[in-house]
């Protein structure tokens, strides 16, 4: 039975389409193919979401959340397109080289290919399930024709766009193959994620995570392949160039994350190997086996992070020195300011964690409300640092992410002696969106604040963009929750908990923060080019998305807000 378009459009879908239309309306004519591809991707994802939501449960997704397919599919491509718009302004002003714009173009198409691959997978799964249940289901035939048309037209636009930035047909073919690899890798990864961590994420959240991982580590792989080709193949035979000039802090963060990825795979292999050869010997006590596992963990972690990852950074990305002494040199280049910030952070974290941990164990305050205090803590920690020490904050975010990842590995694998302690401590701050398998809230808050800052490195003519995560999560989301919980009466929907009063408070608080922040930035030397009307549209759209979405708002809201502030 067909569903009318009006009945299919819920609040979340309407806000997402408004978000996409706002970005499309700001595009220059040179990016018209990108606009067409994003429009096709949005329509395709809308059809797939409607089909999935009206089909029996085919995936083990997070209870209480919608599928979020359209939001998960368009977020990363729209972020890349907003960045392309910003870089187009820089090219017209001759402030960056054309190679940087071409690199971002490839990132846009790679993000789109990741989303398109997942959408094709979802459509095939629902198509097969519908035909198995009712072979004469005519609506599925119409959906198939429409979806196939979107995919074919999208592919044609992609080929034309890549041909315009490629010097030869061989380069175009290589780029198309690279995009196909992105789509295939994302499909395999999201299948693995949803099966390994059942009921931990919605489809949209899984799509965002897997697309982001494939995009980020695919960039590393492309840099590695390009470097190897330049070392082994004479340039007169094949010339393969990839990437842009990266900041030293960006290289360090990439190296650390690559090292942790390699470590996870190596540690799992070593544990299986150890259990195969020595696990059958049950004469050893359990405590002794745990100690051996801990020694393997520490040894492999230390070797990879001290030897393997730095070697990759120095060989592939031409980093001049070992990153460990470079980090110390960077910190002590301004010792008073940066060490003072470290002490300030440690005092805030210690006092807040100790206080809130005791409250969480002894109080009946809702977990979701209690965790908003950590959003306020993020404002106190990151806002002053972003204004006065932005480069140091870049590095600090990378270090915090690495620590979080190591602690999560320790918790999941129950590495002696900290595994159980970390699990008990982290469980005190979880809510319905977390599970015992994986706890994502602290990652989403950290990355929600960090990603807009990292993506704003290099050319940035919109001074509010680095603050997108801190403003939307630390101020807007927090005020919306607190005001809505205490004073909220009028609800956006009959089944949801979000209130109109809370949303209004969130939007108003972010606008007030912007009104204070803009003069402060001007006083520190920023050249202000943002006007109030685009800021108002960005704040309102992200606030409405927070009100309607049932997805993990820490992940999506900062990226949406960042995209709109780039325009």
Automatic annotation (TrEMBL):
- The residue ranges crossing the membrane are 106-130, 151-170, 253-274, 295-316, 336-357, 369-389, 395-416, 437-455, 467-484, 504-526
**Entry membrane topology:** Multi-pass membrane protein
Q: Name one GO cellular component term.
A: endoplasmic reticulum membrane
Q: Which InterPro entries match?
A: Polypren_kinase (IPR032974)
- Enzyme Commission identifier(s): 2.7.1.108
Q: Which UniProt keywords apply?
A: Endoplasmic reticulum, Kinase, Membrane, Transferase, Transmembrane, Transmembrane helix
Give any GO molecular function from the UniProt entry: dolichol kinase activity
- Cellular localization per UniProt: Endoplasmic reticulum membrane
What name does this protein carry?
A: dolichol kinase
Q: What is the lineage of its organism?
A: Eukaryota, Viridiplantae, Streptophyta, Embryophyta, Tracheophyta
């Amino acid at each position: 039975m067909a569903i009318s378009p009006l009945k299919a459009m819920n609040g979340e879908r309407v806000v997402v389409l408004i978000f996409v239309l706002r970005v499309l309306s700001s595009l220059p004519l040179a990016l018209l193919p990108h606009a067409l591809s994003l429009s096709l991707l949005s329509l395709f994802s809308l059809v797939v979401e409607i089909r999935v939501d009206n089909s029996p449960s085919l995936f083990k997704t997070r209870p209480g959340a919608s599928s979020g397919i359209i939001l998960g599919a368009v977020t990363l491509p729209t972020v890349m397109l907003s960045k392309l718009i910003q870089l187009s302004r820089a090219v017209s002003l001759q402030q960056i080289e054309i190679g940087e714009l071409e690199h971002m173009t490839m990132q846009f198409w790679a993000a789109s290919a990741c989303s398109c691959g997942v959408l094709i997978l979802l459509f095939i799964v629902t198509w097969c399930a519908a035909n198995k249940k009712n072979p004469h289901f005519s609506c599925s035939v119409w959906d198939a024709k429409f979806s196939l048309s979107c995919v074919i037209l999208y592919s044609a636009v992609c080929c034309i766009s890549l041909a315009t930035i490629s010097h030869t047909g061989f380069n175009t073919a290589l780029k198309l193959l690279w995009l196909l690899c992105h789509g295939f890798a994302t499909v395999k990864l999201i299948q693995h994620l949803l099966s390994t961590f059942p009921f931990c994420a919605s489809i949209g959240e899984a799509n965002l995570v897997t697309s982001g991982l494939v995009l980020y580590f695919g960039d590393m792989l492309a840099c590695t392949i390009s470097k190897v080709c330049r070392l082994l193949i004479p340039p007169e035979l094949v010339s393969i160039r990839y990437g842009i000039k990266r900041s030293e802090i960006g290289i360090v963060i990439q190296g650390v994350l690559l090292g942790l990825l390699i470590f996870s795979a190596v540690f799992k292999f070593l544990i299986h190997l150890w259990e195969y050869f020595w696990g059958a010997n049950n004469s050893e006590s359990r405590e002794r086996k745990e100690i051996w596992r801990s020694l393997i963990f520490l040894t492999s972690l230390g070797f990879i992070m001290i030897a393997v990852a730095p070697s990759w950074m120095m060989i592939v990305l031409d980093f001049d020195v070992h990153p460990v002494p470079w980090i110390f040199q960077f910190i002590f280049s301004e010792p008073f300011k940066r060490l003072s910030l470290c002490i300030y952070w440690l005092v805030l974290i210690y006092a807040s964690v100790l206080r809130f941990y005791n409250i969480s164990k002894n109080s009946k305050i809702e977990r979701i409300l209690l965790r908003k205090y950590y959003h306020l803590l993020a404002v106190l920690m990151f806002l002053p640092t972003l204004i006065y020490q932005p480069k140091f904050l870049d590095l600090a975010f990378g270090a915090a992410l690495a620590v979080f990842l190591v602690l999560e590995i320790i918790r999941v694998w129950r590495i002696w002696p900290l595994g159980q302690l970390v699990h008990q401590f982290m469980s005190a701050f979880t809510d319905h969106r977390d599970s015992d398998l994986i706890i994502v809230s602290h990652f989403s808050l950290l990355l929600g604040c960090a990603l807009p800052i990292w993506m704003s490195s290099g050319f940035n003519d919109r001074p509010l963009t680095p603050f997108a995560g801190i403003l939307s999560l630390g101020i807007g989301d927090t005020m919306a929750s607190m005001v809505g919980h205490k004073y909220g009466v009028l609800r956006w929907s009959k089944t949801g908990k979000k209130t109109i009063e809370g949303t209004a408070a969130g939007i108003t608080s972010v606008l007030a923060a912007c009104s204070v922040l803009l003069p402060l930035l001007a006083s520190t030397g920023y050249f202000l080019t943002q006007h109030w009307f685009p800021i108002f549209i960005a704040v309102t759209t992200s606030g409405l998305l927070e009100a309607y979405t049932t997805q993990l708002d820490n992940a999506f809201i900062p990226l949406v807000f960042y995209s709109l502030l780039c325009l």
